Input
Amino acid sequence: MKNILVLSTDTNIVSPITETFSWDDRVSHASDFASGAAAHNQRPFDHIIVDMALVDTTPGARDIHRMINPFITVNPLVQFIAMAPRDQVRKVVKAVKEWADDYITIPVDPGEIELVIQETNQAMVKDLELDYLRDQFWKTEWLDVVHSRNANMKKIYDSIQSVAPTIATVLLLGETGTGKGLFSRLIHWHSLRSEKPFIAVHCGAIPDTLLESELFGHEKGAFTGADRRKPGKFELARGGTILLDEIGTITNAAQIKLLQVLQDGTFSRVGGEQLMTADVRIIAATNADLPIMVDQGKFRKDLYYRLNIFPIELPRLKDRLEDLPYLVDVLLAKLKAKYGKDISRIHQAVYEGFQDYDWPGNIRELENLLERAYILETGSVLTPANFPQEMVMGSWNTPVEPCDDGQLSLADARHRVIHKFEQTYIKNLLKQTDGKISPAAKKAGITPRQLNRLILRYKIDKAEFKPNPKPSPSTSTPNGKTTNAI
Amino acid sequence: MKTIVQPSEPATIYGIVIPTDWDDRGNILKLAIVTYDEGKIFVVPNDRGTALMTCLRKAVQVKGIMRQGNGFQEIEIHTFAVDPGQSDKF
Output
């Protein structure tokens, strides 16, 4: 039995589609994304036929991933079929390139629909089989990590499957928070060295004068304070894997020694003459632009070539927003295990804020924001009130809408509205009085002491409203948005 | 266990093509194949060996004659192909 949803405002299209299917198939119709998603929540559909006219006329539907994500969250294998009149076939072809699994044209041809449904069914089975085969390779505890709907990420996982069992040096590239540390562990745990040590060295955190000794060890008397022989990380990682994080920060002397390891597989301790074999698989990671550093003479060219044997560039979170629902689910499950609260989802307004946000700190930032909100949340849904205001601005700035979703009691919903209203009211008041308490209190008809109490309760920084505000503890993002420090 | 091949015998190996030598401008001069058991087999840089450059950082199946060098192994390639089913090999 097939379970199909037709998303279209044109009811005339629905009948011929319904007639194509047999009596035991279930064909439903929704005239907008929201009601379609609500029906999908009740009973997930296998195929969703999306009229491109609806995409064109729905506000915000230009960002189609935002519209289809709620469907994918409920059923990751749901197949989308784009639909448009024959003379607009370019539209559906574009849709197939970007998000749809297949397309049909209007007027609908029963044979075409049957064929498309059959093919998307086959694609779904193939996806299931591929996921199964991939999962055979990945160790159970990593299955949560290696899931993605992003084509680029899928290629990365395939690359990791290939390279993990080899001895090839891997260079992990990507912005901060994209998961370089996690991926280095993923490679190690799926290599032949998984039973041996995994040593991670954050090169940027070690003072230049100590880095060489930390990596390669030192002999007694090698330098002032070297009162005994000390093994380095390369010795500790013997037989296993070493992660050299922030590789772009290492000193010239350490670069030369590392080059020797990569070329000959040998090294010697600082102050020592004995040549030792480095039986270590090297993974390097950086968010720096190494070719530019090479051009500037800050990084050795020959070392760069030898590190760049198998580069893997991890995408920014902004470039894999289709994975957001899944990442949120995984992170919430982790938080549930850590804190034991029964919170398993986030409010739709937060999702909307997430889609528009730039994520300069990538997955690490998402993790931190969720953890902060998780700790603060008293209900069963992570609400916009516990996320930075800049992030959920617009969707959560209307004080008359309780974020209940039918989940909160009347008392809780009322409390939230009052909370939000008072916060907005006081901010507006302080804005009018340039952050001055006395005139603001007078306008509000309360005492300055009462106003101060409310300011404290809602954690409002009155300095923000002064003509020359003091800088607040926040991080600027490239697009000018700010993230409150957590 | 490392890939075991008899010297100067036809062999088929599976692995990933990686660069091993560069000129001053960063152009790749020599290649090797890293196998799924942590072996490293250098590619003899003849015409077919150079043609393997098109498969750089890809999983391949390579057929050729293996030779034992001084502390290393090398292969003179006869045929090669991208190996889409590489995950079956490990």
User: Anything to note?
Assistant: Residues 202 and 245 of chain A are 5 Å apart (CA to CA).
